[in-house]
Every structure is written in structure tokens, then in C-alpha cells.
Amino acid sequence: MISAAAAGGMALVELGMALTPGPNMVYLVSRSISQGRTAGLVSLIGTALGFLVYMTLANLGLAVVFVAVPWLYIGFKAAGAGYLAYLAWQTLKPGGRGLSEPRGLQRDSHGKLLRMGLVTNLLNPKVAILYLALIPQFIDPERGHTTAQGFALGAIQIAVGVTVNGLIVLAAGSVAGLLKSRPQWAAWQRRITGTLLGAVAIVLAREVPARARA
User: Fold this and answer.
1) What is the CA radius of gyration of the chain?
2) pLDDT in tens, 189-198
3) Which DSSP string corresponds to the chain?
4) 19-49: pLDDT as tens digits
């Protein structure tokens, strides 16, 4: 099975990624603010299902497809970098909104929220890169059962990711109220969020030419 160092390293990597603004955070915060914490938690279940899908596919050979078809992997990363750059612009442009500012979204059923959370996560380039490029770095073939190691590391990633996002969902309403009462804080939140999004987009853009490794 996996070593303690691999487990700790995976937990730290996921913690850093979960705290970096991205599609999942945008969706969960928006739903929590516009429709309440219950809607945010239901959406979170959908994103958790997305993690399970990625974990299963990655361990059953999805990575092989990206190795065999390099342009598909490169294109996926390019699309992810472009999407994050777009989110950064939407946040930093004049009149833009931060992640924790209320948005006018229609109220959806729990079933639709679950499906939207699932789709949002499946289309999240951060998650794809995590499972196809980062998690394999913590797998040690000398310890045997590489597939079991992949599932164990995926379980750690899901536990950390769901915990962090769950706390974000629970705190979203309070943060939104605080920012609404202090406009100057909201402005700084937008700047920080937009800068983080832009930085992640630049990092991903620099890594776009790299091919998937077997």
C-alpha cells in the first residue's frame, strides 16, 4: 500500500488545489449564496461523484488514452488554462464580481443541482490534471498493487477536497454578508481572487506542451 509520505504529500497537494479558486469553488459558492447552504451541500455531493468517476477511470486506464493520443491531453490542458484565464478576467475587469459576491441564479431542484455539480467537476481541468499527472507521481511500483495505490490516493484526495469545499459552502453565506457590508473588502477579495486565477492559468499554460507520461 501507499507510504505515509505519499499519503501526506497527496493530502497537501489536494489542500493547495482545493484552496485555489477554480470551477468547483465558483459553482459551489454561487449556489450556496443564491439558494442556501442545503443547495450548496447537494451540489457538493455532485462534485464528489465527479471525483469518484475520475478516480475510477484514471485507475482503469484513462491515462493510457492520453499517452496514446498526446494532442488530446495537450488540448485538454490548454482548454483548462484558457478557462481559468477567462475566470480571472471576469473577476478583475471593471464591474467584475468576486467568488463570494451574490449572483442572481435561478432556484433549481436537488436533482438538477446534483447533476450540475457532477458535470462541473467532470469538466474541471484541475481535477483531470490532478488524476492524470499528479497522483501518479505518488505511486511507487516497488510497493506493488499500483491500482490499489491509485484508489487509496484518490480516496485521500476526495476526503480532503470534500472537507475543504464543505467548509467553503458553510462559510459562503457569512462571507458574502461580510463583503456586502464592507465594499472595500470585496474589492480586495476580487483582486486577490483574480490574481490567483491568473497565476494558476499561467502555470497551466506553461505546462501545456508537456505530454502525458505512462
Assistant:
1) 18
2) 667 666 776 7
3) ---HHHHHHHHHHHHHHHHS--HHHHHHHHHHHHH-HHHHHHHHHHHHHHHHHHHHHIIIIIHHHHHHSHHHHHHHHHHHHHHHHHHHHHHHSTT---TTS--------HHHHHHHHHHHHHT-HHHHHIIIIIGGGG--GGGS-HHHHHHHHHHHHHHHHHHHHHHHHHHHHHHHHHHHH-HHHHHHHHHHHHHHHHHHHHHHHHHTTPPP--
4) 876 778 878 887 887 777 888 899 999 999 9
How far apart (Å, rounded) are the C-alpha atoms in residues 205 and 77? 8
Q: Is the pTM of this model over 0.85?
A: no
